[in-house]
Specification:
alpha/beta; Rossmann fold; globular; binds zinc ion; Sulfotransferase domain-containing protein
């Protein structure tokens, strides 16, 4: 299996963390299009011994360091003890990193249009920016793991562009959990009005079914490509996860080299999971829910999606529907 390209040890990465911690980190990167159930899956995985869920880590600069939004634990990011410890380990404190610059790099480097360059070898100024951003990610991932006692980091950033950059971070063993949900369910979810408590009640973004389908096809293809170009990848269907969560979680734990006993699985009976507080830096508002959460296949699209939109989604995504076994 070929090894993905590695960035040179420049910038903060050359210091291997402000406290000299050089222990490598295993990262479970959830690859999925938004509204595929990845928040639930990442939180279930983060509740396992030896794992820590941090939500959509790619937004740490925007919503964490710069805007100080609410962490999953309920504290403002900069007051959360967990993230304070991470910042200290990685950069000698959050004052030790130029978060504005990091955010500019995140925005410029992880654009969808850059995926061809990220899949091969970036050149010129773009290559320099990629290396600079990658130089921040290595210490960050390693610090999260170290702050959690060497845990596997569950990163729910989802976007393939972000994964293509993150897998280059030094001292990071990035494995892709490729989560697929039926395109009709994803498309319907993007049409719904959802207010988010962690953004002053503003609504989550909505997209047309046609636009969602284009992303569904391209993102799934990119995660398959990552699997063929050096990144360990496990494919899981969301529908299978919620129907048989114990089996799916055991399979994923094995993929991550986590040893988990039956008693350590967070499920209550066949249809419920108990979730504790975590330190998600950003993500779907569901990240803030704790306690018993029902697990059931969400088939609301069968009633909610108009006949026209249903035909549009089928027409646009049928190769993927067949590939992933959605035949009914
Ligand atoms: Zn927190």
């Amino acid at each position: 299996m070929p090894t993905p390209p590695r960035a040179p040890a420049t910038g903060p990465d050359s210091q291997a963390g402000a406290d000299g911690d050089t222990a490598p980190a295993t990262v479970c990167y959830l690859g999925a299009i938004g509204r595929s159930g990845s928040t639930l899956v990442s939180r279930v995985l983060g509740s396992l011994p030896g794992a820590v869920s941090v939500g959509e880590l790619c937004w740490i600069w925007t919503y964490g360091v710069l805007r100080n939004r609410t962490c999953g634990c309920g504290q403002p990011f900069l007051e959360c003890p967990f993230w304070t410890g991470v910042g200290q380990r990685a950069f000698g404190g959050w004052d030790g990193v130029d978060a504005g610059r990091a955010n500019d790099l995140r925005r410029s480097v992880t654009r969808h249009r850059h995926t061809p360059e990220l899949l091969v070898r970036p050149v010129g100024r773009f290559a320099h920016d990629v290396d600079e951003y990658v130089g921040l990610l290595g210490p960050l991932y390693r610090a999260i793991s170290a702050e959690s006692g060497g845990a596997v980091v569950i990163d729910n950033s989802k976007q393939p562009e972000v994964a293509l950059v993150a897998r280059q971070a030094s001292g990071v063993d990035l494995r892709v959990l490729h989560l697929v949900r039926r395109s009709h369910g994803v498309a319907y979810s993007w049409t719904k009005h959802v207010a988010r408590a962690d953004k002053d009640g503003r609504e989550m973004l909505r997209k047309s079914p046609a636009k969602v389908c284009a992303g569904w096809l391209s993102d799934n293809a990119l995660f398959e490509t990552m699997g063929r170009t050096g990144s360990p990848r496990l494919l899981v269907r969301y529908e299978d996860f919620v129907r048989a969560p114990r089996d799916a979680t055991r399979d994923i734990a094995a993929f991550l080299d986590l040893t988990v006993t039956e008693e350590e699985l967070p499920f209550e009976g066949p249809t419920s999971v108990r979730l504790a507080t975590d330190h998600s830096v950003w993500g779907n508002p569901m990240r803030l829910q704790t306690g018993a959460i029902p697990l059931r296949p969400d088939e609301a699209w069968r009633e909610g999606l108009s006949a026209r939109d249903r035909r549009v989604v089928t027409a646009l995504t049928w190769p993927g529907l067949l590939r992933y076994g959605y035949r009914d």
